[in-house]
Amino acid sequence: MSRPRIDYSLYYVTGRSLLPPAPTSYTGPPGDWYLAHLEQALAGGVTVVQVREKDVDGGEFYEVARRSKEVCDRYNVPLFVNDRLDIACLLKCHLHVGQSDLPARLARQLLGPDALLGVSVNTVDEMRLVLDEGVADYVGIGPCFGTQTKKNLNPIMGPRGVRAILEVLGDSEVKAVVIGGITPSTIPNVLAQTPAPLASGGYRHLDGLAVVSSISAAHDPFTAATELRALFLGRKMLPSWNLNASTAALDEQQLVRNAVDMLKLLREGAHKPLVHHITNQVVMNDTANLTLAFGASPIMSSSPDEAPHLSTLISCLLLNLGTITEQQIASQKIAGEAANRNQKPVVFDPVGVGATEYRKKSASDLLNACHVSIIKGNAGEVGALAGLSEVQARGVDSVGAGFKDPASVVRTLAAREKLVVAMSGKVDYVSDGRDVFAIENGSEWQESITGSGCMASACVPCFPASLSLSLCSTAVALFAGLRHESGSLSAAVAGLVAINVAAELAAERADVQGPNTFRAALIDECFRITPDDLARRAKVKKL
Ligand SMILES: Cc1ncc(COP(=O)(O)OP(=O)(O)O)c(N)n1
Ligand SMILES: Cc1ncsc1CCOP(=O)(O)O
């Protein structure tokens, strides 16, 4: 194959209709403003250009592509044309085709040996077909998000849909760019969520970002291109998961020490970390009290209007699907996006996610809208998110004996989602995608009250919340050098150990006569539990 190897990192698909008016400083012919704008984008760092003209006839398309190629040639940047094989052949440039255009295998027959061919894909089946045919050099995967730029848009895939396609692509030579709604504010989420785990180890990443409006509608295309490319090259992901950094593995003693030290910080009470709960009506009062009992401070708000402001104030966001409504999921998405923007950890409890299609879709929409740091669920919920049917759910409860190999379930889901998974049950399992820890604390009484899983989830953000104290307290030493997901792992283990040890202490009390007295005693014990109690009783094992 004599085709060139090109840099796909910033792939600009032109959109002449979106151009802003030429500034007064532009003195060239009005018809050439598009070319001047393109040139600035190239100078800013665009690495590939595709001329996409939807409403013009062949003559005009040819002329725009010809003149665009002259500009691209000056920057040594390859030019593709969209759809039009004839124009690609005439100009000796490259071609991009969609699923409803001339089939790629036919286009390949007429394109010369030096021309690159790109194909759009929206589903894993389309991706498989592209691989089987073996004629494409890259795929344009999208639409990732909603966009005003394209009519007849295929279903929106979200970063997780893009990841499913990258999983099929695996370590093939075919390159991949993502398209649809790619902007500086969506890029961190895309980069955090799309890498797909490979069977051979490691991850399959995107090779580039494809944009239309982020450059074509920009008044300053130079700066727009510079920023987009820097975001991609810097692989500036959300802090909760940086695949390229290496963390020293934490052992169980260290995790218990972290839990003890975090509880000390909460007990010192110099700060009351603020946790924003968007949660269900059944447990709201209990989880607010429990947060207070640990020394953190809850704010219970489902308002989409205050979520962005709240995200600047909080230490952590807790999202719970328990009594989800359309309005609440919209608030959760807004709050999650804002938390990501402000680099605040998000803990997600996908209550009853396996119960209905509606909950499944809500969870998937939410996970596409924001990157969460920790998912905490029961076996039924974790199984539903992992796409497994081994453990069934009845409503919000998990039924049956649990997974045969719970450790590999949580490890695989954590590695795929690139976050920490905490699965509660008689034994709790927590994984960061590499290591798995079992927590063998707890009391049977926990099963007798409603919302005990939600209460466990509410403990977790009390502990990452204490991470935000690190700049002004003894936690500096504790957390210096720890990456965020080590923080998430520590926090998930600490939160679950704390609630389970508090449950053991409550169960031992003589005044506990039944579920209701247990519930009250549990909140009391969350208030009374000491770092020493944790240190003495914690049963954490690395598997
Ligand atoms: C890089 C890249 N990816 C996807 C597309 C979409 O192509 P298509 O599905 O053919 O839709 P139209 O662009 O023709 O509307 C693309 N153009 N570029
Ligand atoms: C051409 C195309 N194909 C899928 S989405 C899309 C448009 C992307 O435009 P924008 O970058 O403005 O969202």
UniProtKB/TrEMBL annotation:
Single GO term (MF): ATP binding
SUPFAM superfamilies the UniProt entry points to: Ribokinase-like, Thiamin phosphate synthase
Any matching Pfam family: HK
Keyword Transmembrane helix applies: no
Cellular component terms per the entry's GO annotation: cytoplasm
Cofactor: Mg(2+)
Metabolic or biological pathway: Cofactor biosynthesis; thiamine diphosphate biosynthesis; thiamine phosphate from 4-amino-2-methyl-5-diphosphomethylpyrimidine and 4-methyl-5-(2-phosphoethyl)-thiazole: step 1/1; Cofactor biosynthesis; thiamine diphosphate biosynthesis; 4-methyl-5-(2-phosphoethyl)-thiazole from 5-(2-hydroxyethyl)-4-methylthiazole: step 1/1
Known catalytic reactions: 2-[(2R,5Z)-2-carboxy-4-methylthiazol-5(2H)-ylidene]ethyl phosphate + 4-amino-2-methyl-5-(diphosphooxymethyl)pyrimidine + 2 H(+) = thiamine phosphate + CO2 + diphosphate; 5-(2-hydroxyethyl)-4-methylthiazole + ATP = 4-methyl-5-(2-phosphooxyethyl)-thiazole + ADP + H(+); 4-methyl-5-(2-phosphooxyethyl)-thiazole + 4-amino-2-methyl-5-(diphosphooxymethyl)pyrimidine + H(+) = thiamine phosphate + diphosphate; 2-(2-carboxy-4-methylthiazol-5-yl)ethyl phosphate + 4-amino-2-methyl-5-(diphosphooxymethyl)pyrimidine + 2 H(+) = thiamine phosphate + CO2 + diphosphate
One GO BP annotation of this record: thiamine biosynthetic process
Thiamine phosphate synthase/TenI domain mapped to chain residues: 35-213
Keywords: ATP-binding, Kinase, Magnesium, Metal-binding, Nucleotide-binding, Thiamine biosynthesis, Transferase
PANTHER family xrefs: THIAMINE BIOSYNTHETIC BIFUNCTIONAL ENZYME, THIAMINE-PHOSPHATE PYROPHOSPHORYLASE
UniProt-recorded name of the protein: Thiamine phosphate synthase/TenI domain-containing protein
Species the sequence originates in: Rhodotorula graminis (strain WP1)
Organism lineage: Eukaryota, Fungi, Dikarya, Basidiomycota, Pucciniomycotina
